[in-house]
Write a structure and sequence with these properties.
The protein has 3 helices and 12 strands; from the N terminus they run βββββαββββββαβα. By secondary structure, the chain is mostly beta strands. The chain folds into 2 domains: 77 residues, Elongation Factor Tu (Ef-tu), domain 3 (Beta Barrel); 92 residues, Elongation Factor Tu (Ef-tu), domain 3. The strands form 2 sheets. The protein has a 6-stranded antiparallel beta barrel. A 6-stranded antiparallel barrel has the order 7-8-11-10-9-12. The mean pLDDT is 92.
Length: 195
């Protein structure tokens, strides 16, 4: 379980394919605090640490993960948003994030708003996921508030701190990102379909 509050950035230093799996080796500032078998969210995707070697750790993405997320487009040198699992005794600063990406989206526009930025994303709404204005959404692992919800499209506003401390500082129009929709909204939508 995560909250969508990014702890730091990691850098992909090696990528190794093994069958349909891909092993990503990543360097980050808190590798010395990690342990094998620990869950860590990478751009919103929960992956298990399988190996640690000094300041580099390795995680494995299976075919299903690569299909449903944007992890397959990572390259050596790519930056990723990182979040360790939520502490049970800490403040709950974001929203309930499972680390299970629902689908990807494309960044359609980035508008500078004199001190903040509005990012608009487009996604396939035939899958059944929805956003609501002032509702929660997770974009590449970052817990955000939807400011403009339309069919197959939504926008979020980013403050300078978030832009500077996450991969939003390198995001460009046309980039593919990971989405995790609000878990409560997903349950409500599923109940409405059944009735």
């Amino acid at each position: 379980m995560f909250t969508g509050i990014i702890e730091g950035l990691g850098e992909v230093v090696a990528i190794e394919k093994e069958g349909e799996n891909v092993h990503f080796s990543i360097k980050c500032s808190f590798t010395n605090e990690l342990k094998v078998d620990q869950s860590l969210a990478h751009n919103g995707v929960c992956l298990t640490i399988v190996k640690i070697n000094e300041n580099i750790y390795t995680v494995t993405a299976i075919k299903e993960t690569l299909i449903k997320s944007s992890l397959g487009s990572l390259q050596i040198g790519s930056k990723v948003n990182l979040e360790r699992a939520m502490l049970a005794n800490g403040r709950f600063d974001g929203h309930v994030v499972q680390g299970h990406v629902d689908q990807t989206a494309i960044c359609k526009s980035i508008i500078e708003e004199n001190g903040s930025w509005t990012f608009t994303f487009e996604y396939d709404n035939n899958i059944g996921n929805i956003t609501v204005e002032k509702g929660s959404i997770t974009v590449n692992g970052v817990s955000l508030t939807v400011v403009n919800s339309r069919d197959a499209q939504f926008s979020v506003c980013i403050i300078p701190f978030t832009k500077g401390s996450t991969t939003f500082n390198t995001l460009k129009e046309g980039d593919k990102i990971n989405l995790e929709f609000d878990i409560i909204g997903k349950y409500v939508a599923k109940l409405l379909v059944k009735n």
